[in-house]
Specification:
globular; single chain; Cytochrome Bc1 Complex, Chain A, domain 1; 5-stranded mixed sheet; 2 domains; alpha+beta
């Protein structure tokens, strides 16, 4: 049973004890990511994440941090999304003190050394180039641009070459100090925890409460235009000499707190959640039009994005789009069968149960639930919501989401944008 309490300095703590594990995960999550940034500061959240591992007052260099963790056999990393940034250490319970000590030290006492920042700037620029050179990664960013345009949700999480080069140490450190304060943080501790492990919370409770800005939901809202832009404005293409076209078809989705989030999980599982899903069977198995094809969704506080991703033969691009369109129309016109509905629910429950065996997945689940839902929902409660989904819910939601007039398309491949727009126009008739 998880517990939630607040330290005197404002840090929210969630403890999730797990039986049968000797590991402990300590995760600090802040409700700040790339969508909270101005154009001038684009990439700042991600840059801060990188700088956290570059030295603190207690551990002056990156090598001292990594050596301590490596010597204990710990798993450690960080992540920046559009709506949050997190830092975690997963370690044997007997070494849990190191996880508490080090995560707290990095978050509250990182030095942001100017020389290290200049070196890390180069690292991040190479990271940007790596993503751009990988079609599967590049198309993901292109899809955000096609869907959200020139809005923070449509920008690259890592920023741009220009913004990265212009970020000074003073501005980045001010950004860090302004937002990385106790009341903007939830600390999730999951795994083989007991009273002895929780004594190490002193590394966090000893930090002083600070004013700072309350980040939760402090972002520029996105509003869908009343009338969808013309097709040419909803299609983004990066033309390259490739043998395959990486494609994402997207539609306006649902937000995080939408009551239809359970139905959405079942809908996308049926459509493209596995090797027996409709799109996988029709596009890959029956016709050999793709190797990779799946469906999914991203949800934020104000909006959501539904998407279908595939790697397609450019010469058979139109054929693949016709089949995908056919499946979208089918799920809008015909209620799913009782067996298909039951299988999808069982698949979702099984995958979640397997994931929740890991303390790091448990920590991230509860931390995200805390910041982004009105109440902290347990995995069991989520599965309970999945079980209540009816075929009528799937039918209704499919008709709400899969409006071809709202379709957005991102393509990285050899075909020119004009040709792709013509194909989509022809298929949409």
């Amino acid at each position: 049973m998880h517990k939630h309490f607040k330290l005197k300095n404002g840090i929210n703590v969630i403890t999730i004890p797990l039986r049968g594990t000797k590991a402990v995960t300590v995760l600090a999550l802040f409700p700040v990511g790339s969508r909270y940034e101005s154009r001038q500061l684009s990439g700042a959240s991600h840059f801060v994440e990188h700088m956290m591992f570059k030295g603190t007052e207690k551990r002056p260099t990156y090598l001292e941090i990594s050596r301590e963790l490596d010597s204990a056999g710990a798993e450690y990393n960080a992540f920046t999304y559009k709506d949050c940034t997190g830092y975690y250490v997963k370690i044997a319970a007997e070494n849990a003190e190191l996880a508490f000590d080090l995560v707290s030290d990095m978050i509250f006492h990182s030095k942001f050394d100017a020389a290290e920042m200049d070196k890390e700037r180069g690292v991040i620029i190479e990271e940007l180039r790596m993503y751009e050179d990988n079609p599967l990664m590049a198309v993901d960013h292109l899809s955000d641009k096609a869907t959200f345009g020139d809005h923070p949700l449509g920008w690259d999480i890592a920023g741009t070459m220009r913004t990265l080069k212009s970020l000074t140490r003073a501005r980045l450190f001010a950004y860090y100090k302004k937002y990385y304060v106790p009341h903007n943080m939830v600390l999730a501790v999951a795994g083989g925890i007991n009273a002895g492990v929780l004594k190490h919370l002193r590394y966090f409770s000893g930090e002083k409460a600070k004013g700072g800005k309350n980040l939760q939901n402090n972002y520029r809202r996105f509003v869908w235009p009343r009338t969808a832009p013309g097709l040419a404005r909803r299609v983004e293409v990066s033309r390259r000499k490739l043998d395959q076209a990486s494609v994402i078809i997207s539609f306006p989705g649902i937000r995080q707190k939408d009551p239809d989030r359970y139905a959405a999980a079942v809908l996308f599982n049926i459509l493209g959640g596995g090797m027996s899903s409709r799109l996988f069977v029709e596009v890959r198995e029956k016709r050999g039009l793709a190797y990779v094809i799946n469906a999914g969704a991203a949800a934020f506080g104000d909006v959501g994005q539904a998407s279908i991703q595939a790697g397609l033969d450019p010469a058979r691009f139109a054929d693949a789009l016709k089949v995908i369109k056919g499946e979208l129309l089918k799920i809008r016109r015909e209620p799913v069968s009782a067996k298909e509905l039951a299988d999808a629910k069982s698949n979702i429950a099984g995958k979640l149960e397997l994931a929740m065996e890991d303390s790091s997945d448990q920590a991230q689940w509860y931390a995200r639930q805390f910041w982004f839902l009105d109440k902290t929902e347990t995995p069991e409660e989520f599965i309970g919501g999945i079980k209540k989904v009816a075929a009528a819910d799937i039918f209704r939601l499919a008709n709400k989401i899969f409006d071809l007039n709202q379709l957005r398309l991102a393509v990285v491949g050899p075909n020119a944008k004009g040709k792709i727009v013509q194909i989509v126009q022809k298929i949409s008739k």
